[in-house]
Amino acid sequence: MLCTSCRIRTAVTADGRCTFCSGTRPAPPDGLMAADAVPPGESGGRLGSPLGLSKAVVVLLCAVIATDLLAVAAGLNMRFLLAGGLDDGFLAVRLDEADRADRLYYFAGSAQVLTLLATAVVFIIWFRRVRLNAEIFDASAHTMRPGWAVGGWFVPFGNLWLPYRVAAGVWTASARTRTDGGGRTVSRAPLHLWWAAWVCWMLFGRYASRRYSTATLPQETVDAATLVVASDVVGIVAAVLALLFVRRLTRMQGERAALGSMPMSAQVARGGRHLA
Question: Is 268 a domain residue?
Fold first, then answer.
C-alpha cells in the first residue's frame, strides 16, 4: 500500500503514511548522525529560481486558452454550417460561406499548433528547473533521475505516466517542511487534476482528429466536428489546470528555498537529531 500523502513510498504507519511523511524515519546504526550539509555550490547542485520561467509558462498557457477558444468558435461555425446544409444525406452550402468557414478553421488550428509548441518548450524547461531544485531539497523523494524531467515526455506511451512520476517526486520534495524536519501535508489535487486533464485531452484529441480526417459522408463530418470542438473544450480545462499547477509548485519551491538551500536532513542534523 502506498503512502496516502506522497503516493510514492510504502505506507508503514497506522494512518497510512510513509516514514518520510510521518517524520518517523529511524536513526542510523551505532548512533551515527547525518553529516553537515555541503553548500550547494560545492556539492554540484545549485538552486535556480523558477519564477521567471513560470511567468512565461503562464503567459503562454493563456495564449493556448485564447487559441482554443478561437478554435471552439471556428469549430462550432463549421459544424452549424455543415449541419444546416444537410438535406436527406446530401450537403448543400454556399461556396463562399464554406470557404470562409474553412479559412477560419485553418487559421485557428494553425494558431493552436504554434502556441502549443511554444508552450511545450518553455514548460519542459521550467519542469527541468523545478526537478533540479527538488533534487537539492530532498534527493530521496524521487523515483526517477532528473533527466526524465525532459526525456519522459518523448517516450511513446510512457509519456502517459512518466512525467507524472517525476512531478510527484518534485511535489513531495518541494512541500514546505515543518521546523521539526517533517513534511507539511500539501494537497496534491493540483497535480492530480492537471495530469488527469492532460491525459484525457491528449487521448480524446487524437481520437477526434482521426475521426475528422477520415470522415467521408456529410453526417460523419458533422459528428466529427462536434468531437473536435469537445476536445478543444477539454484542452481549455487542461490548460487552466496546468496554469494552476505551475503557479502552485513554483510558490511551494519559493517557500521551501526560503528555509535554506541545504537538504532538510542536514538542517535537522545541525539541531542534534539522528537521521536515516
Answer: no
